[in-house]
Design brief:
211 residues; alpha/beta; Rossmann fold; 43% helix
Length: 211
């Protein structure tokens, strides 16, 4: 039996029970419906150490166990979802520190979905656009669809007041499309033989998504 593909959802908010965590969790659930296994890296509770250039350039494993576990989880994932709150029209420093812990090819051969949440008027797309450059620098492929939310897109789920995306609202359809694209890109990139380059794999996935 072929092992299921694994997606790691990274919540880049420093707040426990954040909208960002709910959003990446929602995307993870949609990918589970599409045959993936999903995991969550909630940066609010991981307590990762500060990144340092000595570790970035070193080939030795990171000396802090929490950082090693996070790096290994990213490298082991077939796909990623990066989620961030919006601070001063940018992505969070907590997420920046986390990606700075990673080797420069950490996203190689991986499709990445980008989502963000802003507390005010809808305008969090800028943070996703900034993260596209980060994904490119780490040799990954950000899928075309991205999702930006505001507080009005969520409602209490009834389980201890946890936030949940409103399934009747317009954002849910975008989440579905993001999950479809991430699944298609990941299967195309993981399904190609060793002789096929990443560019041809992405071109094939783009054709599949557009079909």
């Amino acid at each position: 039996m072929t092992a299921r593909l694994h997606v790691l959802c990274v919540a880049g908010s420093p707040s426990a029970g954040s909208h960002t965590r709910a959003l990446v969790g929602h995307i993870g659930g949609l990918l589970e419906q599409r045959g993936f296994e999903s995991g969550l890296a909630d940066l609010a509770v991981l307590d990762l150490p500060r990144s340092h250039p000595d570790h970035y350039w070193s080939e030795a494993p990171h000396p802090v166990g929490r950082a090693r576990e996070f790096i290994e989880a990213v490298l082991a994932a077939d796909a990623l979802v990066l989620g961030t709150p919006v601070y001063h029209s940018g992505y969070s420093g907590l997420l920046k520190n986390a990606v700075d812990l990673l080797p420069s090819d950490a996203f190689a051969g991986k499709a990445v979905g980008l989502v963000s949440h802003a507390g005010g008027p809808r305008g969090s797309a800028t943070a996703c656009e900034q993260l596209r450059q980060v994904v490119k620098a780490l040799e990954g492929w950000a899928v075309p669809m991205q999702v930006s939310t505001v507080s009005a897109d969520f409602s209490p789920s009834g389980r201890g007041g946890d936030r949940a995306l409103d399934l009747t609202g317009p954002v849910h359809a975008r989440c579905e499309e993001l999950a479809d694209q991430l699944a298609a890109f990941t299967r195309a990139m993981r399904g190609r033989g060793a002789g096929a380059g990443a560019g041809s794999a992405v071109a094939g996935a783009t054709a599949e998504v557009a079909a």
